[in-house]
Structure to design on (211 residues):
């Protein structure tokens, strides 16, 4: 199951002007991502089909910590939890009473979460990056197009508001879009030991892939 059955934000402002960027866009994006060692944020996610019709909306909370540790909880419309310690990924569906366990995909071309919690140097190696400022001049958006032709998506954007991560969206090769907006972003919180290791509840079915 794809890690990014979730992930990333809509740009609601339609009045956008392209701006000259003094530093290379990929370097500027790396500079914004580098201070992020961990974070917590509420999120709202929307999935759109190739015609732009919304067919799913999710809300929840997202915690992350470098390198590649994830704790993603969906509250609405149905509970779901995704946890990774950087090596293994657990996807827990309480309604199905099932946990799927699989290797964590440490590849930014198939798993965009790497861009937030991996090495910023991977950006220039894997993507062509351009930047644009929204008209209010407090929001910076970066457009990333994968260099390889074998990626699962054709375009990704990352947005910062006043220097703080505010959202990501991506478009897959079928034209479907995943839009995620972050709210109440907290930079570099501390987490308890083993927070990013999922404890499997008793009595649930466990489906293991790749182990």
């Amino acid at each position: 199951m794809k890690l990014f059955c979730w992930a990333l934000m809509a740009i609601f402002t339609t009045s956008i002007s392209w701006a000259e960027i003094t530093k290379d866009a990929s370097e500027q994006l790396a500079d914004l991502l580098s201070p992020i060692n961990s974070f917590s944020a509420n999120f709202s996610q929307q999935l759109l089909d190739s015609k732009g019709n919304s067919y799913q909306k999710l809300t929840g909370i997202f915690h992350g910590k470098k390198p590649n540790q994830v704790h993603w909880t969906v509250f609405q419309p149905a509970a779901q939890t995704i946890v990774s310690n950087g090596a293994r990924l657990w996807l827990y569906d309480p309604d199905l009473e099932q946990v799927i366990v699989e290797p964590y995909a440490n590849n930014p071309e198939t798993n965009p979460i790497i861009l937030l919690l991996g090495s910023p140097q991977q950006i220039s190696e894997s993507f062509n990056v351009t930047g644009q400022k929204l008209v209010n001049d407090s929001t910076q958006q970066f457009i990333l197009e994968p260099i390889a032709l074998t990626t699962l998506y054709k375009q990704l954007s990352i947005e910062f508001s006043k220097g703080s991560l505010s959202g990501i969206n991506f478009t897959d090769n079928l034209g479907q879009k995943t839009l995620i907006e972050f709210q109440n972003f907290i930079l570099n919180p501390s987490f308890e030991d083993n927070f990013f290791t999922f404890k499997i509840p008793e009595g649930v079915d466990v489906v293991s892939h790749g182990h």
Summary: Confidence is low (pLDDT under 50) at residues 1-22. The two ends are 15 Å apart (CA to CA). Residues 16-192 form a domain with the outer membrane lipoprotein receptor (LolB), chain A fold (CATH 2.50.20.10). Helices lie at 25-33, 114-117, 122-126.
